[in-house]
Design a protein that fits this description.
heterotrimer, A alpha/beta, B alpha/beta, C alpha/beta, B: alpha/beta, 7-stranded mixed sheet, 4-stranded antiparallel sheet, 11 helices, 11 strands, 32% helix, C: alpha/beta, 5-stranded mixed sheet, 10 helices
């Protein structure tokens, strides 16, 4: 597994993976960019058609492969491009989050959000907030070497 | 070249301490940790207090010591068009097992046949070489034990480098192999030679085990060779869940799956993991065809491999009668009853 | 028991079914029994040692069982919940199976336990059981039985774990899952794990590593617990079948609690009751979402 990323002065920089839906959050993130809003550059975005497509295994896999934090974001309820994808996702995420917490994966490492296509500012907040939170928590050292 | 010696419990404890101090990995039956687990297992111990020599049979087989449930075979890394293979460190730590059950020790020898057959499994033999087995005669048995039915017994010394027999005051020690001699040389002071026999505490156990199952493996093999399509298989396999728990607790099951686990686009580890013929996936072809398409075929395969095919190839029954499969089976398959039924049928007795 | 045997004989004689799936006393305790002959119905028993959940055998994946034809299955109320689940999820049709409901006073933990039922050996789930006879049944046999003696909430251990810090929980679970050898007995005995191709068997990509190391084991057990959310019937077979003594029930009970607290859903033997994961409400709680 990759060692924690550090920069110049040896400070820990978290690696964060974001699973976002194409229609709302991805477009919102794009807006944040074109609006030249300053954001932490720790986040790698993975675009899915819908939060309904986001299997909880994606979150686990991200942690397995070295992510220190994960963002999951999509359309607000009632705005899903596929009508109900985010409703199904909402239940799934709610349960998995509590299950993860139960086995000791700190829920503060995973941020869930609804960010619409026009909420560039909100996306920046989610990115910056999550990055800072995970920076405080430190590297994710969950699995001993397999 | 066996020499009888007496090892008092105090000296055994001291021997264990000596071994640990010398950096040897000491494995023995020990209590599982945590409130959720009550079974005894073979585990690495850090002190003689953790060793349980008169408890029930460990719920996991000794084969774990020489054949871990998962082990890395090599790591790869791709650099441009070249692939570098890095052998996983293959130095094996010197290990001494104290208190191995005869059925577990014998299992190691039985599996040696296939591991050294058409391809010498260096990982298996490397660990075998580094492991000294101090087996101990059983002082307890239950209704699942049937070692006597497969040519073994509660006092069988197969696979043992030392054999310890509980006596008043400690253990009578039989040093049986050069490896055992080597250990004795280093710790001779702990096992003084002694005059005169001491009473044995294991009398009567063999009879108890024989009462569980009294069959002849050669008769069973004969029946298996001629009853591939017998209705017995369909009937008996109905309740089998195909879970494979039996294979995973068996001292002689040794099948494994090889997987590649990438940890990036250009590097990863190849591993081998325990596997079981009881799963549908075991014989599933890439085409989608499965020669063992249901549990009837898979369960039949298990029995035939153990009691007919392996004996035909290597002259050994692939079973040591430890009884774990009987104890662990959630569906109550009960190999003892099945073998009894086959043996009866082989004698032309009750219809199958 | 005679009532059960007579009913079984009748069902076979009238060719309503080809086989009865019930329990018998084996050498090592009570176990599932498949009876196809009227004369063999004498083997059928029902008592406090009938632990196994027979609904597991109804999955169409078990072609060797399906080949027997139409079955009559003996079901306790917990088992009937699993049958309801299979019907609900279109694995079997209600009319394809005859359900012989039994009135149950609780069962022991270990089918080989020959002692009478008492607070010492009763299965913990039976102490909490609210309905000791199934609603989903074609026939109902046996005398009504009192609730089994026993005390202590099963969820005491859950609360203990919840009170730990995240690091303590992680250390605990890594230790609890370490002896897992990935035999998948938990999956095989579960009536609700009927997928033709389990996600743990998928490659390209491999979502759940099959190796019994820390990564693979955690991914497997978390995924199975999640896939059973709202579907696990709390029969306890997974935990009983596990050769490594892993307290799987803790994960399933936790998820069941989350589902009950958040969505007011408790598994029942009513096939028409929709499962909480396949459904949603517009106003589902989302306090954890920014």
């Amino acid at each position: 597994m990759s060692a924690p990323v550090t920069v110049g002065d040896g400070a820990f920089e978290p690696s964060i993976v974001a699973f976002v839906c194409n229609w709302c959050t991805y477009t919102g993130a794009d807006l944040a960019g074109t609006s030249r809003i300053l954001m932490a550059d720790n986040v790698r975005i993975i675009r899915l058609p819908c939060t309904g497509r986001i299997d909880t295994l994606f979150i686990l896999k991200a942690f397995e492969r070295g992510a220190d934090g994960v963002i999951v974001s999509g359309c607000h309820p009632a705005d899903c491009h596929y009508t109900a994808g985010n409703y199904h996702a909402r239940r799934r995420f709610a349960i998995f989050r509590e299950l993860m917490n139960f086995v000791g994966i700190d829920p503060r490492r995973v941020t869930f959000s609804w960010v619409s296509a026009s909420e560039g500012g909100k996306w920046a907040e989610v990115v910056n907030g999550t990055t800072e939170q995970v920076r405080q928590l430190g590297p994710f050292a969950m699995y001993p070497e397999a | 070249m066996s020499t009888k010696r007496i090892l008092s419990r105090a000296n055994l404890d001291a021997l264990i301490r000596d071994l640990i101090a010398a950096g040897t990995v000491v494995v023995a039956p020990t209590h599982s940790s945590g409130q959720e687990r009550t079974g005894v297992t073979y585990g690495q111990v850090q002190s003689p207090d953790e060793v349980l020599l008169d408890g029930p049979q460990p719920i996991r087989p000794l084969k774990e010591v020489v054949f871990p449930p998962t082990e890395a075979l090599f790591r790869w890394r791709q650099e441009k068009s070249a692939v570098k293979i890095e052998e996983v460190p293959t130095g094996f730590k010197e290990t001494v097992v104290i208190g191995a059950r005869p059925c577990d020790a014998a299992g190691l020898e039985v599996v040696d046949c296939v591991m050294g057959w058409d391809f010498r499994d260096e990982l298996w033999f490397g660990r075998r070489q580094a492991t000294t087995v101090l087996a101990m005669a059983c002082t307890t048995c239950d209704e699942s034990c049937f070692c006597t039915a497969v040519g073994l017994s509660p006092t069988s010394t197969r696979g043992a480098d030392w054999f310890l027999t509980p006596v008043d005051g400690g253990f009578e020690v039989d040093v049986l192999t050069p490896k055992g001699e080597a250990v004795l040389e280093r710790y001779k002071a702990r096992c003084p030679e002694t005059e005169g026999p001491a009473p044995s505490r294991t009398a009567g156990l063999e009879q108890q085990v024989r009462a569980n199952l009294d069959v002849r493996p050669d008769r069973i093999r004969g029946w298996l060779e001629t009853h591939f399509d017998d209705p017995l298989w369909k009937r008996v396999a109905l309740r089998c869940h195909g879970c494979g728990a039996c294979a995973f607790v068996c001292p002689s099951c040794h099948c494994f799956d090889i997987v590649d686990e990438p940890d990036g686009a250009d590097s990863g580890t190849r591993r081998r993991n325990w596997d079981s013929c009881q799963t549908a996936l075991f014989t599933l072809h890439g085409s989608g065809h499965n020669p063992r398409k249901d549990q009837t075929a898979r369960f039949r395969q298990r029995i035939m491999h153990k009691f007919s095919i392996y004996p035909a190839r290597f002259g050994e029954v692939l079973c040591t009668g430890c009884g774990r499969c009987v104890r662990v089976c959630a569906a109550g398959m009960d190999l003892v009853s099945i073998l009894a039924e086959i043996d009866r049928a082989a004698q032309g007795g009750a219809e199958t | 028991m005679q009532e059960l045997r007579e009913l079984a004989r009748k069902l076979l004689q009238e060719k309503q079914v080809s086989a009865i799936l019930g329990y018998e006393h084996g050498r090592m305790g009570t176990r599932p029994a498949f009876v196809t002959d009227v004369a063999d119905c004498e083997r059928l028993v029902f008592d406090h040692r009938c632990v196994q959940n027979l609904a597991a055998y109804l999955s169409p994946r078990r072609t060797h069982v399906a080949a027997l034809g139409r079955l009559a299955v003996v079901v306790k109320s917990c088992d009937a919940r699993a049958v309801a689940g299979l019907i609900r999820e279109s694995q079997i049709k209600r009319e394809d199976v005859v359900l012989i409901g039994v009135r149950c006073g609780g069962v022991v933990r270990d089918p080989a336990d020959a002692r009478p039922l008492s607070a010492d050996n009763v299965a913990p789930r039976c102490v909490d059981c609210e309905k000791r006879e199934p609603t989903l049944a074609d026939h109902l046999v046996g005398e009504p039985k009192p609730a089994p003696a026993g005390s202590g909430s099963r969820d005491a251990r859950l609360s203990e774990i919840e009170a730990m810090s995240p690091d303590e929980r992680l250390t605990l679970w890594m230790e609890l899952l370490a002896p897992c050898t990935r035999c998948h007995a938990c999956r095989q005995v579960c009536p609700m794990c009927f997928c033709e191709r389990c996600i743990a068997e998928k490659t390209q990509p491999t979502w759940i590593e099959t190796s019994p190391h820390a990564r693979g084991n955690l991914a497997w057990h978390l995924t199975r617990a999640l896939h059973l959310a709202g579907r696990c019937v709390d029969c306890g077979e997974c935990e009983r079948a596990c050769p490594a003594e892993i307290p799987l029930g803790l994960l399933n009970r936790k998820v069941a609690r989350v589902v009950a607290d958040r969505y007011g859903y408790v598994v029942a033997d009513d096939p028409s009751k929709p499962t909480p994961i396949g459904t949603y409400q517009l106003d589902d709680a989302q306090e954890f979402i920014q």
